[in-house]
């Protein structure tokens, strides 16, 4: 019965993520999980913990099966679920060790965000809270602190239910957290604006072969951009295209470079575009700046490549599991960060999977005053992947105090302000140009400056307190 309760709790946690996006289900989910973990039997707690995480990840990551089948999705779900099994060892819940649960969860989130293969931070609790009143906490301690507070509030609610003699204490804790929310935010400084036109041209066919005709995606973005520039009454300072909008290297294929220059020169507008540079053994996923009368004037090479999508770890095993692995070309990662300068705007390019890398996003953000998230979701069809990525971007906007222009090849795309609110949201595979005068911000948030220290504080301080308690008890748990 407790395993079924844990599975139900995992299902509720998945509902906190998009497409449903009911953020409060996260707290309810953990309350039910704590009840399921009251069992004194370790085997039952292990089964409950695996059931909880498996059901949640199976739903949240279902988009990973869109075109490659059930087996890769199942294996990914199992791998992510195994990370959380150690939580069964710090329970049963009725022990004082329950107070280590939120910190332990954050430690596991940090581990799975870095290992294996560079990590996979998708599905962190914080990323379910883009609509939550708690979201401003991200500007203080990033995703880790937001996850910690979310789980800790659920723990206080659970203790309130289970310990009637101490309900006054737990009510006071909840009131204190809610009352402190207006203070738990860090603001950056307004520094002007930039007029942006972001182009989502869509693709002819959603799927792994979205770009089967070389340069088709490029010409679609070129045509839609030209049409917009002819008709608009407000000239943009910059046009931004998504990841892979230029799917062949304009330095090698001169006709592509010539078309880009003709567009930029004709309307005197620079273009920031996602481009595939190099060929075969030298492929790089890049964000390039193409200026009028200059041409290529800067590039950022994607640092954090997508394992099994842009390079293939364990290739022999992967090809045995899925025939689609043979179609994956190995890209080469960049090692430096770069921003595109357009007048007073310093645009930090973040390419798709980069978004999950806390440290990389912080480094890019510190050099710029606005973020351009360039992504390609065509390989995930009409699944929830794009909406979930957009929700992560909303958390990043709050965390770093920056506006974000999120532009996808096939959607969803939109503008996000520094408080996480969005506008001009597109639909999947809609061919559209969205435009806005986007606010620029200078300075850094508390999270930018101190997130690593805050993260390790919420992980280690409860354990240090537990060790002190053990010493006072003479080592008795």
From TrEMBL:
GO terms for biological process: lipoprotein biosynthetic process. CDD domains: ALP_N-acyl_transferase (cd07571). It is a multi-pass membrane protein. Keywords: Acyltransferase, Cell membrane, Membrane, Transferase, Transmembrane, Transmembrane helix. The keyword Transcription regulation does not apply. Residues 194-440 form the CN hydrolase domain. One of its GO terms (cellular component) is plasma membrane. It is found in: Cell membrane. The chain crosses the membrane at residues 6-35, 42-64, 70-91, 135-161, 168-184, 453-470. GO terms for molecular function: N-acyltransferase activity. InterPro entries: Apolipo_AcylTrfase, C-N_Hydrolase, C-N_Hydrolase_sf, LNT_N. HAMAP family: Lnt. NCBIfam families: lnt (TIGR00546). PANTHER family: APOLIPOPROTEIN N-ACYLTRANSFERASE. This is Unannotated protein. It comes from freshwater metagenome. The lineage of its organism: unclassified sequences, metagenomes, ecological metagenomes.
């Amino acid at each position: 019965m407790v395993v079924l309760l844990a599975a139900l709790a995992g299902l509720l946690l998945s509902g906190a993520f998009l497409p449903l996006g009911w953020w409060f289900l996260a707290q309810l989910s953990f309350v039910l999980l704590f009840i399921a973990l009251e069992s004194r039997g370790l085997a039952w707690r292990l089964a409950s913990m695996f059931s909880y995480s498996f059901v949640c990840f199976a739903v949240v990551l279902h988009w990973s099966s869109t075109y490659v089948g059930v087996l890769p999705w199942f294996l990914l779900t199992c791998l992510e679920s195994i990370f959380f099994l150690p939580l069964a060892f710090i329970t049963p819940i009725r022990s004082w060790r329950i107070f280590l649960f939120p910190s332990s969860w954050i430690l596991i989130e940090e581990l799975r965000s870095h290992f294996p293969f560079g990590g996979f931070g998708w599905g962190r609790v914080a990323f379910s809270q883009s609509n939550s009143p708690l979201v401003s906490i991200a500007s203080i301690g990033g995703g880790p602190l937001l996850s910690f507070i979310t789980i800790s509030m659920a723990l206080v609610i659970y203790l309130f239910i289970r310990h009637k003699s101490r309900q006054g204490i737990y009510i006071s804790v909840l009131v204190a957290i809610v009352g402190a929310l207006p203070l738990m935010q860090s603001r950056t400084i307004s520094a002007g604006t930039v007029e942006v036109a972001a182009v989502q041209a869509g693709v002819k066919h959603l799927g792994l072969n979205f770009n089967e005709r070389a340069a088709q995606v490029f010409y679609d973005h070129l045509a839609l951009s030209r049409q917009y520039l002819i008709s608009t009454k407000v000239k943009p300072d910059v046009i931004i295209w998504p990841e892979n909008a230029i799917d062949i290297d304009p330095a090698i294929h001169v006709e592509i470079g010539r078309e880009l220059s003709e567009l930029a020169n004709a309307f005197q507008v620079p273009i920031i575009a996602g481009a595939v540079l190099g060929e075969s053994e030298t492929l790089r996923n890049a964000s390039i700046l193409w200026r009028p009368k200059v041409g290529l004037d800067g590039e950022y090479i994607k640092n954090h490549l997508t394992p099994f999508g842009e390079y293939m770890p364990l290739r022999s095993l992967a090809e045995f599991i899925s025939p689609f692995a043979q179609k994956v070309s190995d890209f080469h990662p960049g090692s430096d960060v770069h921003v595109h300068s357009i007048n007073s705007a310093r645009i930090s390019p973040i390419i798709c999977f980069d978004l999950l890398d806390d440290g990389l996003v912080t480094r890019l953000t510190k050099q710029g005053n606005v973020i351009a998230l360039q992504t390609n979701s065509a390989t995930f069809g009409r699944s929830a992947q794009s909406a979930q990525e957009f929700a992560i971007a909303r958390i990043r906007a709050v965390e770093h105090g920056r506006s974000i222009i999120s532009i996808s090849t096939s959607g969803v795309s939109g503008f996000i302000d520094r408080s996480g609110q969005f506008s001009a949201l597109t639909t999947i595979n809609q061919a559209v140009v969205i435009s806005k005068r986007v606010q620029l911000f200078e300075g850094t948030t508390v999270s930018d400056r101190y997130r690593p220290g805050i993260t390790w504080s919420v992980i280690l301080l409860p354990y240090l307190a537990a060790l002190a308690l053990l010493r006072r008890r003479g080592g008795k748990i």
